[in-house]
What we know:
Blueprint: E1 3-6, H1 11-22, E2 28-31, H2 39-44, E3 52-54, E4 60-61, H3 64-75, H4 84-113, H5 121-140, H6 151-166, H7 175-187, H8 189-192
Parallel strand pairs: 1-2
Antiparallel strand pairs: 1-3, 3-4
Helix pairs in contact: 1-3, 1-6, 4-5, 4-6
Amino acid sequence: xxxxxxxxxxxxxxxxxxxxxxxxxxxxxxxxxxxxxxxxxxxxxxxxxxxxxxxxxxxxxxxxxxxxxxxxxxxxxxxxxxxxxxxxxxxxxxxxxxxxxxxxxxxxxxxxxxxxxxxxxxxxxxxxxxxxxxxxxxxxxxxxxxxxxxxxxxxxxxxxxxxxxxxxxxxxxxxxxxxxxxxxxxxxxxxxxxxxx
Length: 197
């Protein structure tokens, strides 16, 4: 059975776990602390980043976007639509949601890994504004409620979950987006259990 190295708070891990679940691909989840740089992680991904999917034959798949695309191919398009226009929309949605996560993580890491006197507040604010603009885009373009969830939806849900966990103030102006997340969770409690925590 494939092994997924992941961390519960990580939005990227959440996205990968939801994608594999959406594709009905069984996997063993292996909680991993990147700060400890465990040998299994460092051997699997030279960047030392999670998530990493280690296949039965020993090959490694990283990052979260590559894991989604792998799950999609393996499952016969269970993660992304087959129709070209619908697939493009899902892929752009996934990309924007991942970019929001990148901005939030950059903002958090700036404060976490630098001495307080060296934190660049302008950089933190710029990253938070990027995330806010991304969420604003989704607030103005709420995904249609559909039974056909795809990689864009799960990526957005992971981003909202991460914001709820680490930067809830970013979501204060986005009531429609929060309502969409609640509907997502009600429709798919199996996926909701995998959001960042």
